[in-house]
Amino acid sequence: MAPLADDSRCPCGTGDSYGACCARFHREEAYAPTAERLMRSRYSAFVVGHEPYLLRTWHPTTRPHALDLDPGTRWLGLDILDTHGGGLLDASGTVRFRAHYVLDGVRGDQTELSRFARDDGAWSYVDGQVG
Questions:
Q1: What are phi and psi of 95, to 5 degrees?
Q2: pLDDT in tens, 72-86
Q3: What dotted CATH number matches 23-130?
Q4: How many Å apart are CA 74 and CA 56, to the nearest integer?
């Protein structure tokens, strides 16, 4: 998928423009300050197909060597259902979310409880339980 214009609405659901929201994380201009912001920026990375960002923000102990993003998946929206920890002063946190998509003309959603860790000021995705 092509990159979003900075003045486009950010797909993460905050209502902000992409340039004022997730683009600065994708461009390595800043770190996501909380686990929820990292979750939102990773969702946006899935929307735009930004595989390097997804790998870079995956914890080194669980990071795969590569990703195989399905270009046929069209992401429709993100709902943050719950968060625990993951704040400015926390070292870990969880985010429960639901992501909506269309794949091969069929609508679906994925609910996941994701774990995050912060090392040296940067949050990373550790793993998640789908369902």
A1: -135, 125
A2: 999 999 999 999 999
A3: 3.10.450.50
A4: 22
**3-class DSSP string for the chain:** CCCCCCCCECCCCCCCECCCCCHHHHCCCCCCCCHHHHHHHHHHHHHHCCHHHHHHCECCCCCCCCCCCCCCEEEEEEEEEEEEECCCCCCEEEEEEEEEEEECCEEEEEEEEEEEEEECCEEEEEEEEEC
**What is the pTM assigned to this prediction?**
0.95
CA dist., res. 47 & res. 113, Å (int): 19
Q: Which residue has the tokens 């060597």?
A: 65
Angle at 78 between CA 105 and CA 29, to 5 degrees: 120
In the chain, the percentage of residues whose pLDDT exceeds 90 is 95
